[in-house]
């Protein structure tokens, strides 16, 4: 009885163990004690696998070196382009793949968790050297036109660095380049300015060949500047029934803006002083008179009348354009308003410039009717107001009243910052404030500083005042 009871108790305990402790797995440790093993150990690590192919053809790339960053572990792809890394701790990695003839590939950060396998397909891009010459608008350049820009660009469109060099150019009018040689990194863009000996430019077409060399070949483009410096002799226009004397202004270069003779008597819009090159042109020896205006337009809008040889005034910019258009139709020539650059060049005396502050003298009363000898005298004085053209001294070109008497319209739109980006050859601002146009030279009402050769002023293009007139030019 007693044994049977013990046996029964033993059987009972064994059955209990089978139910609660898994008696059918006697070799497994009891729960709650010991160290876990088997599959639980494998969950601590992860792995990374992948395949490397050619980006263009999709072919498998063998023998590519695959580095696992930031570790120093590397492997190579097999004949099927495959690679693998096992037993990796959880963490953040990068893959770097290299192969001769291909651009090195570096992946973004890859987060690997315990027990995870990350699969990556990587495409390698073949190394290529490719570069281009561009114009200012980033278009392929064949001809650089100096009337538009002095800057060209080199761009590396490949994925390998490209060394380049510009050999010396034999033409005397090309002084050099802002950078003669260098290296372009992949995707880099280099702007290069052409330096010009402007005094060496010839009348007519100037052309030079510029060659840019590199290890993978040369590229060539032309630099052209067609200048028309020379003009014929002075002439007198008579085709509209009156005489209008025109002075030949030989083209050339000058420094435009508040040059040294202006002292401190200048405004910020007269800076920076900058190089300008102009074609030759003809310009009126005098301001357009009331008689000449009436002969073309059939009216006289002026406030100060009584002498038809006074300058016409109270004309807007639009009125002045209409006068030029009608005169052109009557004569068969191309008459227009001067550009701001043409006006200043002529006021300074062109190639006969004597470097004076005003148009022909450093003493304004020699050459101008202005505030002190006109407006300041009062309305009852006979010298109050405008005066007949040509009654003061001329400048070096034989032009009268470029300082004082009446402001003179120019064709340009006004932009106070224009000198900072204006082109060198035949500049004309056609992209400023359309409502405001440039006036030059001062008038009978203005102080001496407004009669300087570099002064810039602007008013609304529709403005009609008794201090505003015009002088015209004719294209050579």
Q: Which radius of gyration do the C-alpha atoms yield?
A: 42 Å
Assembly of the depicted chains: single chain
Q: In percent terms, what proportion of residues is strand?
A: 25-35%
Count of helix runs: 6
User: Which bin fits the share of residues in helices?
Assistant: 10-25%
Overall geometry comes to elongated
Biggest sheet record: 5 strands, antiparallel
The poorly predicted ranges are: 1-41
Overall pLDDT level = 91
From the helix content, strand content and strand pairing, which structural class follows?
mainly beta
What is the tally of beta strands?
Answer: 28
Terminal CA distance reads: 142 Å
Write the layout of secondary structure elements.
Layout: H1 2-20, H2 39-42, E1 45-54, E2 65-69, E3 73-76, E4 82-89, E5 91-98, E6 105-106, E7 110-112, E8 117-124, E9 131-134, E10 143-145, E11 151-156, E12 162-165, E13 174-177, E14 181-184, E15 189-196, E16 204-212, E17 219-227, E18 235-237, E19 244-249, E20 252-256, E21 274-278, E22 281-284, H3 290-297, H4 317-331, E23 335-336, H5 340-348, H6 364-367, E24 407-414, E25 433-440, E26 457-460, E27 468-469, E28 473-475
Parallel strand pairs: 1-8, 10-17, 24-27
Antiparallel strand pairs: 1-4, 2-3, 2-5, 5-6, 5-7, 9-11, 11-15, 12-14, 13-15, 16-17, 18-19, 19-22, 20-21, 22-28, 23-28, 24-25, 25-26
């Amino acid at each position: 009885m007693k044994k049977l009871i013990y046996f029964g108790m033993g059987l009972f305990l064994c059955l209990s163990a089978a139910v609660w402790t898994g008696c059918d797995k006697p070799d497994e440790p009891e729960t709650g004690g010991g160290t876990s093993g088997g599959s639980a150990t494998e969950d601590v690590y992860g792995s990374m696998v992948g395949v490397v192919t050619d980006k263009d053809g999709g072919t498998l790339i063998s023998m590519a070196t695959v580095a696992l960053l930031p570790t120093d572990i590397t492997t190579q792809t097999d004949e099927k382009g495959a690679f693998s890394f096992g037993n990796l701790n959880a963490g953040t990695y990068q893959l770097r793949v290299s192969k001769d003839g291909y651009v090195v590939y570096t992946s973004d950060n890859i987060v690997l968790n315990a027990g995870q396998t990350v699969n990556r397909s990587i495409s390698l891009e073949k190394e290529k050297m490719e570069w281009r010459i561009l114009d200012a608008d980033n278009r392929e350049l064949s001809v650089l036109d100096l009337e538009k820009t002095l800057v060209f660009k080199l761009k590396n469109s490949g994925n390998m660095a490209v060394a380049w060099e510009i050999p010396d150019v034999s033409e005397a009018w090309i002084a050099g380049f802002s950078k003669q040689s260098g290296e372009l990194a992949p995707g880099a863009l280099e702007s290069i300015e052409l330096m010009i000996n402007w005094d060496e430019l010839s009348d007519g077409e100037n052309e030079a060949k510029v060659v840019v060399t590199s290890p993978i070949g040369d590229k060539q483009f032309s630099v052209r500047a067609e200048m028309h410096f020379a003009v014929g002799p002075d002439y007198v226009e008579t085709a509209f029934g009156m005489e209008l004397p025109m002075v030949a202004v030989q083209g050339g270069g000058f420094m435009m803006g508040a040059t040294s003779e202006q002292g401190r008597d200048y405004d910020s819009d007269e800076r920076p002083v900058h190089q300008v090159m102009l074609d030759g042109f003809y310009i009126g020896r005098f301001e357009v008179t009331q008689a000449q205006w009436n002969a073309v337009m059939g009216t006289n809008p002026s406030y100060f009348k009584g002498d038809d040889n006074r300058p016409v005034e109270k004309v807007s910019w639009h009125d002045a354009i209409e006068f030029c258009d009608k005169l052109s139709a009557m004569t068969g020539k191309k008459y227009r308003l001067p550009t701001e650059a043409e006006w200043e060049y002529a006021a300074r005396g062109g190639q006969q410039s004597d470097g004076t502050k005003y148009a022909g003298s450093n003493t304004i009363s020699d050459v101008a009717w202005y505030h002190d000898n006109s407006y300041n005298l009062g309305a009852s004085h006979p010298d109050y107001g405008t005066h007949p053209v040509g009654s003061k001294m001329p400048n070096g070109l034989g032009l009268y009243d470029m300082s004082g008497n009446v402001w003179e319209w120019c064709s340009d739109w006004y932009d106070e910052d224009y000198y900072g980006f204006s082109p060198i050859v035949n500049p004309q601002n056609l992209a400023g404030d359309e409502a405001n146009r440039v006036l030059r030279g001062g008038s009978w009402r203005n102080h001496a500083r407004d009669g300087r050769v570099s002064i810039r002023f602007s008013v609304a293009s529709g403005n009609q005042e008794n201090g505003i007139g015009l002088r015209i030019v004719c294209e050579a």
